[in-house]
Amino acid sequence: MGKITFYEDRGFQGRCYECSSDCPNLQPYFSRCNSIRVDSGCWMLYERPNYQGHQYFLRRGDYPDYQQWLGFSDSVRSCRAIPCTSSHRIRLYERDDYRALVSELAEDCSCIHDRFRLNELHSLHVLEGCWVLYELPNYRGRQYLLRPGDYRRYHDWGAMDARVGSLRRVIDLY
């Protein structure tokens, strides 16, 4: 499905660990993570074990230090391989429990506010494909992986509030 290599030091130096599937606890393999090489696939990294804490979306490429993946620190404690699909659809709702349908998207949206005049979404329904939701426009800020399914409230995707800035489909560009 994919291959990712974690390095303890910047510039792909120090102890490393290669991974090719979901891993709920990376702590036994390295104590810190300062660089990453994604050889294939798309991945979501988590700052805490069991897919908790800040999330970071990575696709194929080299990330010589944690700022390159917008990391807040060198803490990476779990990872999830994200399946890539050819079709994507997501429904956006202004209220909890799928009330007040805003739109259905099948393409990336770099600024929810510019497109829909909203800064918050309270529920989502992912019909096809995986998406990454960003709290700020232009794919910045906190990130949340959205897999196919129901998100009746913003807590369901792991957010502390309903602020949404942009949405991007998970696609492997290579």
Automatic annotation (TrEMBL):
Keyword Lipid biosynthesis: no
SUPFAM superfamilies assigned: gamma-Crystallin-like (SSF49695)
The keyword Membrane appears for this protein: no
Residue span(s) of domain Beta/gamma crystallin 'Greek key': 2-40, 41-83, 129-171
Record's protein name: Crystallin gamma A
GO biological process, one term: visual perception
Family: Belongs to the beta/gamma-crystallin family.
